Amino acid sequence: MFTRNFLQTHRVPKLSDSESASLEAAVIRTAEFRAKQIIVRQQVPLTQCTLLLEGFIERYKDTPEGRRQILAIHVPGDFVDLHSYPLKRLEHSVAALTPVKVALFPHAAIRALTEQSATLTELLWRSTLIDAAINREWIVSIGARSAAVRLAHLFCEMFLRLERVGMTEGTRFALPLTQIDLADATGLTPVHANRMLRQLREQGLVEFRQGQVEIRDWPALRGFAEFDPGYLFFD
Amino acid sequence: MFTRNFLQTHRVPKLSDSESASLEAAVIRTAEFRAKQIIVRQQVPLTQCTLLLEGFIERYKDTPEGRRQILAIHVPGDFVDLHSYPLKRLEHSVAALTPVKVALFPHAAIRALTEQSATLTELLWRSTLIDAAINREWIVSIGARSAAVRLAHLFCEMFLRLERVGMTEGTRFALPLTQIDLADATGLTPVHANRMLRQLREQGLVEFRQGQVEIRDWPALRGFAEFDPGYLFFD
DNA sequence: CGGGGCCTTGAACGTCGTCAAGCGATGTGG
DNA sequence: CCACATCGCTTGACGACGTTCAAGGCCCCG
Q: I need a labelling partner for B168 at 20 to 30 A (CA). Which of A18, A147, A170, B189 fits?
């Protein structure tokens, strides 16, 4: 049950029934957090990992100058901080964007899984590496694409990821971020993000209003964003 | 022998002698590449991983518009594409910056290691996640820091990473990149990178000339770059 | 009714990009 | 051996993309 969406987004390699059951059994409990609540603070030693069941989570880092950079946006089915298992602590913070429900996996249980099944280990490892591939695509976006294209690219990515877990309705989907959040994710100022959103709307590509995205012209948006979904490893 | 520098940069968790020997035994052969040679092309199915022994390697992605974004710079001891083991292919390319010598690990041998030792698995997994943490720090740099600070931050990072493998001499070290490469790594134009390098030099912080870095004032540089090495997980 | 988020827009500014030219070092072929 | 091309570095002038500052609107909530 808990891992259904996780398996949905990370189907390779195939798991046997007993492996799925082992994964499921590694959950000790579920937990809930309120919107904006901090779930993991950077540099604090950790002993468990968090699988997102419902709601949206962000990972971010604050700079000494007071700027904030969002590093990742997580949707249900994502293993938000599985990398804390090998790393033991995180160098960034994790917070709820909406009210969320999560499943918790103790590091010791994950360790037991890795001793039991190399296939399961590979699945978990792979999951952390897909997150890393998304991180790298964000480097490309922020480093090499214009403001409007960055935003368009983010909408493309979130559309496909949410579609994968059944959280889209046609070309509409919820993306519960403020324009400030979008700016923090794309390395822009809120003012400029606002102007670029208007431009995307006026070009008939995509509309973002109140945490809702409506894609107006998917082929055109994909083209405008130079979006190639290979980095999501949906295969 | 092959893995000495790797173990140097990734000391946690501790390995037994037999585990170290297993890791060493997983190498099938070494290989050499010329400067600028492409080692791995994006999206091509892979069956082995590359540990860098000598020289420098870059990972990068080209955009349809012809811009190039460097995603990572690797130094001896780095497992350059270990993530190809769980992912089976890469979404970016890998190329030699200098003449390089590498050790090759077949995926099958890594698989055997993971079936044999959970500790070794955790070490390898951890290594890929430290790369991801560096990716995230680059997101912060490109998204939230000014041009001069970005460059300063990169010099700080490379200084500590090279110091770790004994490739610094006092405050000097080789960083065999062109100004164009620096620009591609930091999301700047070569012209602007050049101006910012001059500024850093004139401020007495750091000098970069012909692939050589000399840090003039480490405390000041660290402060200017708002550099916090926690993300390198040297512990 | 007042306050605080969030969104929106305008105006002015500045960081950074673009275009262009010149320089030195290196390498190659006539 | 020298002409010539290539590559990387440097600098100037100009322009644009994105930021900053500021103000006003809307909505929700206390």
A: B189
